[in-house]
Amino acid sequence: MIRDLRVYTVLNSMLKPTIKVKLWTDDGRCYSASVPSGTSTGMREAKELPINKVRKAFNVIRKNMITLDEEDWVNADIFLKEMDSTDDFSKIGGNLSLAISIAFARAATKGELWKLTGRNLRADFPLPVCNVIGGGSHGGGTAWQEFLIIPHRTYSPMEATKTAIEIWATIGEELAKKGVLLGKNREGAWMSKLDEFETLHFLAELAEDWKFRIGIDFAASSFWDGKGYKYGDKVYSPDQHLDIITQLAQQYKIYYMEDPFHEDDFFYHSKLTKEFGKRALVVGDDLYTTNLERLKLGLKAKATNAIIIKPNQIGTVHQTMGVAKLAKANSQVLVPSHRSQETYDDWLSELCLALGAPLIKIGMADIPKLNKLLVLWNEVPDARMSKLPLSSL
Fold first, then answer.
1. What angle do CA 215, 218, 222 make, to 5 degrees?
2. C-alpha to C-alpha distances, 268 to 245, 262, 327, 364, 374, nearest whole angstrom
């Protein structure tokens, strides 16, 4: 039974205020959760409310949640949704609802969140999808938001993490040698003077030596002007942009393509998936915002073959699980993802195991989440690394 709940103001990785919820059960145990924020956000994401409004909403919620059964996390999530009564948590805030939801889920699993779905025999550990060169709204010289690496020839989280760090360090050294290094952005990714095409060519040359797979988070909504995709002084139509991506994907063997078109364009996403869906991942993030109704539209359009899972886009663990369940039932690869304004909380790593996701999108600065995977590798029975999706094709 829940004995007490409290809300606190803490700082995220950008030194901006966010919230942390602590929950006590009647056996004296305490469980907590803090929540991140996004910089590049989809317009349909759950609303994040200011701290003062969160505290007002929390005072009402707290009175109604004390004495609830901590193991009944699903009904706790349903209660939060009913308390808000909007589609986007604009009354109580998606930041507050998720913090409470994660804390409840931790209480229900006695602090072992990875067991949330009953996975207590064998767990597949995700391969990291790491942002190594940044651009777009995250800071950097490219229209595309993130250049990603997947060290897929690894057999443990430690090996995968070590390999990713070595590649990241090498990238920084090589950019410095070329005289184009500008520093690091908010996610710890390198920034350079190279444009998106030069950056891709540079990364592809390294991929030959290091044997990693290349990914791009285009975040195309950020350079869509309503009619075309803007690259500096040039604007390309959707057809032209499709041709550019198709050519580059073939030339550089791009394996992972996230939000290659703007967030309402199911049509062109589906065209790209039809072309590459058997050998590469076309991933929806802003396209779906971890929203069940948006996913249904995407499935009908055959828009993607993979989906980003960000719980703070939707507001509760229960809703997140519903989206993940439908996605898996329709052969969509799950990619749980961090946000650009993170906290030191590591719940994403455990949730990734609970969902059985083969990939986790994670920043080089997300040390708590990386460390959590390293620890769990030694605690989870019969642990093994996931295989790269589509690797057999």
1. 160
2. 11, 9, 20, 31, 39
333 in Cβ contact with 304 (< 8 Å): no
Complete domains list, the chain, with CATH: 2-110 (3.30.390.10), 124-385 (3.20.20.120)
Q: Is 187 a catalytic residue?
A: yes
Distance CA 375, CA 339 (A): 22
Q: Which of 20, 310, 369, 372 is catalytic?
A: 310
The Cα–Cα gap between 278 and 76 comes to 40
How crowded is residue 182: how many other Cβ atoms within 10 Å of its Cβ? 15
Model pTM score: 0.95
Torsion of CA 36, 319, 354, 131, to 10 degrees: -40
Q: Hey, CA dihedral for 205, 210, 341, 226, is it positive or negative?
A: positive
Residue pLDDT tens, the chain, 393 long: 999 999 999 999 889 999 999 999 999 999 999 999 887 677 889 999 999 999 999 999 999 999 899 999 999 999 999 999 999 999 999 999 999 999 999 999 999 999 998 865 568 999 999 999 998 876 677 999 999 999 999 999 999 999 999 999 999 999 999 999 999 988 889 999 999 999 999 999 999 999 999 999 999 999 999 999 999 899 999 999 999 999 999 999 999 999 999 999 999 999 999 999 999 999 999 999 999 999 999 999 999 999 999 999 999 999 999 999 999 999 999 999 998 889 999 999 999 999 999 999 998 889 999 999 999 999 998 899 999 999 644
Known active-site residue 193: no
Give 373-378 contacts, CB < 8 A, sequence gap 24+: 373/125, 373/126, 373/157, 373/161, 373/349, 374/157, 374/158, 374/161, 376/114, 376/123, 376/125, 376/157, 376/349, 376/350, 377/125, 377/156, 377/157, 377/158
Q: Which helix (H) or strand (E) holds 29?
A: none
Catalytic residue among 70, 187, 258, 263: 187
Phi and psi for 290 in degrees, rounded to 5?
50, 40
Q: List, as one string, the DSSP characters of 320-383.
A: HHHHHHHHHHTTPEEEEB--SB--S--HHHHHHHHHT-SEEEEETT-HHHHHHHHHHHTTSTT-
DSSP bridge pairs for 23: 5, 31
